Amino acid sequence: IATFLGRKLQPRPQNEVEETLKRIQGQKGVQGIIIVNAEGIPIKTTLDNSSTVQYAGLIHQLVMKARSTVRDIDPQNDLTFLRVRSKKNEIMIAPDKDYFLIVIQNPSD
Amino acid sequence: IGGHPNDILPLTLTSATQELFGCRCDEDVTGDNPYKILRKEDIVQDMRMRAAVSDFSPMKQLVLDYPEDELLLVYDRDFIYGSSFYLVLTADAKERHLKVIEVALEREPSEVFATQKTSEPQPWISLGSEQEIEEESLNCLSFILLSPPPSQLKYRISRVRREFGAPIFFSDRNAMETKDGFIECTPYQDKNFSLKQMERHTGVQTIPNLKSSSTQTQWTYPRSMCTQYEPREFSEEKKENCLQSEKLKNFVNSVASRFEMAIQQNEIMDVFFDDWKALSEEDSGYGRKADPHLKEYQSFTDLHFSKEKTISNINWHPTINGVIAVAVTERLSFEDRINGSTKLLLNPSLILFWSFSDPINPQLLLECPDDVFSFEFCPSDPNIIVGGCMNGQVVLWDISTHVEQLQGTRTSGGKNIANETPVVRYCAVSGIENGHKAPITDIQWLPGTFEVSRMGVPMENKNGICVQIVTCAPDCCVMFWDIRAPRVLQTMADQRKQKVEEKPLENPHGVPNTFKHLDLTWKPLIRVSLPKIDTSGEYSPLKISLRDNTCDNHTGKVAPEYALLRVPSAKQLKPLEDICTRLYAGTEDGELVYTDWKLEKDNDSGRLFSAKPSHRFIIHDGQVNTVRRSPFFKDIILTVGGWTFAIWKEGVTNGPIIQSSCSQKKCTVGYWSQSRPAVLFIGKEDGNIDVWDLLEKTHEPSQTQNITATQITCIKPWIVSCALPLILTAQTDLEPGYVANAAAAGSLYLFIVRFRKFCINLIHFLFVVQTAKQHLLAVSDHLGTLHILEIPWTLRSPSSNEKLSMSKYFEKEVDRLVYFEKRREMRAKEKKDYEAEELRKKTVRYSI
Predict the structure, then answer these.
(1) Under an 8 A CB cutoff, do A43 and B232 touch?
(2) Contacts of B247 in chain A (CB under 8 A)
(3) Name one GO molecular function term (chain A) (predicted).
(4) DSSP H or E stretch at residue B828
(5) Contacts of range A39-44, beta carbons closer than 8 Å, 24 or more positions apart
(6) Which one, B218, B478, B521, B664, has least CB within 10 Å?
(7) CA B792 and chain centroid, separation
(8) Which residues of chain A neighbour B260 with C-beta distances below 8 Å?
(9) Phi, psi of B36, deg, nearest 5
(10) What is the DSSP letter of B196?
(11) Sign of the torsion angle spanned by Cα atoms A66, A68, A69, A73
């Protein structure tokens, strides 16, 4: 039953995820991408370990705060995207129920 | 008393009358119901019956005259009109009263909810008040004059004649003294303000339940606790599992589009870019026909001291504005020196200190044992100056006694009290045997952040000030010197000998004792040689450049007693890891050598020797006279020699990243601009200064300007902040020199624009509050004249992103070099392959 027309169906979500991440990483000025789970534990990253851990912990708190702010104002609203612009770069965060995706970009490059 | 309207008549009714007419007080008629209708006939009847006794008799006629049948009797409970009743005499009044009754009766229930109507002006109804007032006044007057008040009164007032025009005397009287001296309205609590509010409008909001609580714990003794934590991380398999999950895939797909949009937005346009600020930069250049040339600001030449001499080196005083020091040396060739050596001994060599306030006389002279080719102020203590002489000696001066004089000449008009320029003798000189064997061409202070041990290993510098010096000379040596007293490693015999010899030495020249411990016995700490890489022999360095390894600046430390400092043992200090110990040296043969100054120990002999330099580049066709790092980029070095100059990047070993074309005349000296990363100044043999703007063009200088007739020997730019921090100037197409002079004078002027051409030029005003910073360029020439030039606006203000553009340009050049290298290798390989192919073909042909 496992074979169909002599071929095994192999779902390859990893490749798709990889491709999407590569696409984002290839954009101009992108310095790093981190995927963090809902508790703040990094799952995948393109930066070094210490930076990753630091970003994951700090940004997780920030996203929690931002999300609770949005929902307090209007309980039917929810946070979809958070952009933090600093002098040197811009941090973009997309939260979800289970994961966050963090992208750091240097726009003036 | 009196005073009642004409249509009513107050009257008193006896109780009998009251009973008769049914208007008993407080029974038939009350305060609430005071009205009683009486029939006229009844009144007339009563009057007939009782005649004079009747209460109505005084108004008999009035009653008879009454037109209607019924009269209105009103119970005047409050005695408004003086009696307990009053009778309404006219029909109109009666009607009115009746209406009042009806309306009052009607109005009562609805009175509480009646809306307020704005009252309209009603005609004046006289209720007898004028009569009252008239009667009152008449009564008063009659009381005074003791006569009945029938008609007008006449007054006659008289006064004693002598009292007219008499001086008036005023006196004070305390109001409290006499009784009734004043009348006051005593304050009382107005009941209106203590009303109780029965109704009130407020808003009410619900909030989440908040509760805060605390407890007090007993803390008998403090105990330090700490928590150690580390971030939670997933193991590799867990991460893999997560990555494989469907959820993640969906999440990433849904979220990726948002990111792409955001990233592209950033790429397209920077929304936070301040266009307004950026606009002002371009505007400053627009319309200003500013002269891009260097303006002569001042020039110094001394006939007495610098006649027949040339200037070898210039240094600006690091802290005192407007003071510059030049080293003056003889303009003789080697043979001439030997021939005229006796004369030279009598005329000592000098370093002159010039101040802007006095262009004729130098402020201070430093005496040197021999011609000084290079000297430097100590960065941490500008009173200490070190110089390298022609005979290879290193000299130290201490000018702390003359510093006030140097500072004083800046602000005062420059009047010297003493006509003699003070001369300061050197306070320490190195021993001739131990120093260099050739003229010292470059001398530099090591920064106060690290010091170097005997092996050349950089250690932390506990003193925080600059204590070590690097020198180089064409005797193929680079030496490190320490200005502290060496560690005492003497035997007992030596110590005893020293004690005997210790007697107070005369100090005939008044030399300060700062470096007495070094005088004549000073030895270098390390001797670094530069052995040639391929052949035997050594490189002879002329100029060196060390990487600027400053980390934390401990400036501001009080200059210590140098005699008390001791070179510490290498074991006591902590070695610093991140100091780069490599230096660039430009040699006499036009080479640039890159070497490490750390010494290595030869295991066999135990001697210390220097390793071979790692790289060496032949670039220039003459002696390298400048090796300088850019103030903006730590790894970009400029070398000038022969007819060209070259720019190098530390770490790139293929060659120079930029090399200029050969110029017509020899380049004698070069320097980076202090404020613009892309500008450098090259001095030429014919007295020209080439200004190169690398962002504008790189094949030729942007500007060439002739300063003097002879060769330029030294260039040093400097930024001088003026005494007055703010000056209001009108910047037009006016020479900046004009502005600079005002700034130098130290006073505040409001400039009125100077018109050059009235009709043609558009006069462009820019009132700018300028922190007066002058950018000056000190240029010395072979004839011994020091020229101070002002750098114009175009050459001193960096364009926006200039540093970024320059760094990109350098990177491009590095890429070019790497590419060329690759191509060269490829070509070589191709050539080799081709040759091998050819050879093979030939052999194949022959073999057939």
Answers:
(1) no
(2) 98-99
(3) dynein intermediate chain binding
(4) helix B802-847
(5) A39/B232, A40/B232, A41/B232, A41/B233, A41/B234, A42/B233, A42/B234, A43/A99, A43/B234, A43/B239, A43/B242, A43/B243, A43/B248, A44/B239, A44/B243
(6) B218
(7) 25
(8) 23-24, 27
(9) -140, 125
(10) P
(11) positive
| CA quadruple A26, A29, A32, A35: dihedral sign | negative
Q: Inter-chain contact A20–B252, Cβ cutoff 8 Å?
A: yes
pLDDT in tens, B531-584: 887 777 788 888 888 876 654 444 445 556 766 677 777 677 777 777 778 888
Q: Are B682 and B666 in contact (CB under 8 A)?
A: no
Cα separation, B579 vs B446, whole angstroms: 12
Q: Which one of A15, A21, A31, A43 would you mutate to disrupt binding with B, by most B Cβ within 10 Å of its Cβ?
A: A43
Rounded Cα distance between B791 and B774, Å, is: 8
Alpha helices per DSSP H over B204-300: 236-244, 246-268, 275-285
Rg, chain A, Cα only: 17
pLDDT at B559: 57
Query: Does the distance separating the beta carbons of A20 and B256 come in below 8 Å?
Result: yes
Task: Kindly state the tokens that stand for B116.
Answer: 């307020």
Reported confidence tier of residue A69, pLDDT bands at 50, 70, 90: very high
Q: B248 and A16 in contact by Cβ < 8 A?
A: no
Pairing verdict, β B667-672 and B658-659: unpaired
Contact B503, B551 (CB under 8 A): no
Amino acid identity of residue B290, one-letter, is A
By the CB < 8 Å criterion, does A23 face chain B?
Answer: yes
Residues 33-72 (A) with a CB less than 8 A from some CB of B: 35, 37, 39-44, 53, 56-57
- Helix (H) or strand (E) run with residue B752 in it: none
In chain B, whose CA is at the least distance from the CA of A81? B258
Facing A27 at nearest CB: one of B233, B249, B263: B263
pTM over 0.90: no
Tell me the β-bridge partners of B395. B387, B429
Helices marked H in B504-574 — which ranges? none
Q: At what angle do helices A13-25 and B246-268 cross, to 10 degrees?
A: 10
The residue of chain B with its CA nearest to that of A56 is B231
**Res. B734: pLDDT tops 60:** no
Which tokens go with B180?
């009734």
Whether the Cβ atoms of residue B87 and residue B59 lie closer than 8 Å to each other: yes
Residue B262, chain A, CB below 8 Å: the answer is yes
3-class DSSP assignment, residue B92: helix
Q: β-pairing, B442-445 with B450-452? A: unpaired
Q: Check if B808 contacts A (Cβ < 8 Å).
A: no
Report pLDDT for B766.
34
The H or E element that residue B128 is part of is none
Q: Which amino acid is at B762?
A: L
Q: Measured between alpha carbons, how far is B532 from B536 in angstroms, rounded to an integer? A: 6
Please state, in angstroms and rounded to a whole number, the distance separating the CA atoms of residues B370 and B349. 6
Indicate the SS3 state at residue A36.
Answer: strand
Residues facing residue B68 across a β-bridge: none
State whether residue B243 sits within 8 Å of chain A by CB.
yes
Q: Six-digit token pair at B123? A: 């005609």
Contacts of B226 (CB under 8 A, 6+ apart): none
Q: Cβ separation of B249 and A13 shorter than 8 Å?
A: yes
A:B CB pairs within 8 Å: 89
User: Sign of torsion, CA B251 B256 B257 B261?
Assistant: positive
**CB spacing of B248 vs A90 below 8 angstroms:** no
Amino acid at A63: V
The predicted structure's pLDDT at residue B465: 80
For residue B245, what is the nearest residue in chain A, using CA coordinates? A13
Instruction: Map residue B165 onto helix, strand or coil.
Output: coil
The tally of CA atoms less than 13 A away on the side-chain side of residue A54 is 5
